[in-house]
Amino acid sequence: MKKLFLLILIFIYILCCIPVVKAQQPETEKPPYHDWWNEYRFIRPFRSTLAKKLPLITVKGNKFVNADGDTILFRGLSISDPDKLANQGHWNRSHFEHVKETGAKLVRIPVHPIAWRERTPENYLKLLDKAVEWCSELDMYIIIDWHSIGNLKTELFQNPMYDTTQKETFGFWQTIARHYNGNNTVAFYELFNEPTIFNGQLGRMSWSEWKKLNEDMIALIRAFDRETIPLVAGFDWAYDLTPLRVDPVQAEGIGYVTHPYAHKRSQPWEPKWEETFGFAADRYPIIATEMGFGLRPGEEMSEDHYGNHILDYLEGRGISWVAWVYDPEWGPRMLVSWDTYELTASGKFFKKAMQGQRGK
Fold first, then answer.
1. DSSP state of 334
2. What single-letter DSSP state applies at residue 154?
3. Could you tell me which of 11, 36, 91, 150 has the fewest CB atoms within 10 Å of its CB?
4. HSE-up of 180 (CA within 13 Å, CB side)?
5. Which residues, at least 6 apart from 115, have a Cβ–Cβ distance to it below 8 Å?
């Protein structure tokens, strides 16, 4: 019995002396650290030897004037979004040479929020920088247009390509104003393409609320750039400027925008144009930054055509204008195709008007 007990003790002792091998536990991997303290995105100002090649455009009363005080009535056209043109292989100096051949003195460049985000601001600016250089060389001024449609207060928009936020919109103008400060070629900043509440379907926004958003954008822009002229649009897809009768934007040296397409009102157009936006030309400089029309195959333009009416009215009122759009895919088209850069009937009409040959 004693021997058995002794054997048990020896066995227990041996077990206690054998080292226990523990399973290796994998070390918890440390997540890659995010050195947020080193992140700082600084958009450098665009420095160009051509920055002062064109005379600076300023506001004097209800006119745009050059450095000599001469009144400038701008005639020009909108191209399509630089991102679209670059993706389709048409973002080059030749494109702008074709624009120059139309007689355009002002080129409107629409920047869609979706393209600004997807290409990234840094890379999108590279496209715009080229446009500024080309237009400087070709003696054409530029409008940079934040091309959204909808209600910036509720952040509801007409189509996903126009989706943006107040933060992104303010950030866009902060970036653009810092980058192009001091460049005379970039003459105008069109703050928001076409504000609309779409009969309440995009939510509510009063004129006073819209006015305040624009005043805040202008104040931000002028913290960086006190020379480029901000352009403010009214409601009804940038058509209606009637609130200016009683409550204009509180900022000096700005202009206003209208988009007087034919379908906005029935004929006779002129009395309604005068009531809705023309009256404002007595006190403020205005640019019709979009207008245009299409013609069916075989359709002829009569003297009573909208195109003749709108240009007679705008120029009679001293309102500058920009035709939409120099592209064969977006409408109303001014181009037949990219292959030949042939102009459509409306494109030919606006070319004659820009060259001062309308009616000849």
1. S
2. T
3. 36
4. 30
5. 81, 82, 83, 84, 124, 161
Instruction: Assess whether pLDDT exceeds 80 at residue 207.
Output: yes
Helix, strand, coil fractions of the chain, as percent rounded to 5? 40, 15, 45
Do the Cβ atoms of 53 and 184 come closer than 8 Å?
yes
Residue among 285, 315, 273, 355 at smallest CA distance from 99: 355
The whole-number average pLDDT for the span 84-113 is 98
Structural domains of the chain, with CATH: 58-354 (3.20.20.80)
**Residue whose token pair is 């750039």:** 225
Q: List the beta strands (DSSP E) in 112-212.
A: 141-146, 149-151, 156-157, 186-190, 194-195
Pair of tokens at residue 115: 């393209």
Tokens of 343: 């102009």
- Residue pair 54/141 in contact (Cβ under 8 Å)? The answer is yes
Q: Average the pLDDT over 201-214 and give the result.
A: 98
Residues 6+ apart with CB under 8 A from 31: none
CA 232 to chain centroid, in Å, comes to: 12
Strand order in the sheet with 149-151: 156-157, 149-151, 194-195
What SS3 state is found at 79?
strand
Listed in order, strand segments (DSSP E) in the chain are 58-60, 63-65, 75-79, 106-111, 141-146, 149-151, 156-157, 186-190, 194-195, 229-233, 255-258, 286-288, 320-326
Task: Return the pLDDT at 24.
Answer: 55
Residue 290: phi, psi to the nearest 5? -145, 135
**End-to-end Cα, the chain, rounded Å:** 133
Partners of 335 in the beta sheet? Answer: 343
Query: How many CB atoms are located within 10 Å of the residue 143 CB?
Result: 24
Contacts of 164 (CB under 8 A, 6+ apart): 113, 146, 148, 152, 155, 157
Yes or no: say if 80 and 327 are a contact pair by the CB < 8 Å rule. yes
Pair of tokens at residue 121: 């601001």
pLDDT tens-digit readout, 120-162: 999 999 999 999 999 999 999 999 999 999 999 999 999 999 9
